[in-house]
Amino acid sequence: MGWNAVWLTLIGEVSTQKSAGLGIGLSFVIANFGIVLGPPFFGLLVDLSKSYTWVWLFLSLCMALLVFSRSMQKGGQGRRVISVLSESQKNLDKPEGIM
Question: What's this model's pTM, rounded to 2 decimal places?
Answer without folding.
Answer: 0.52
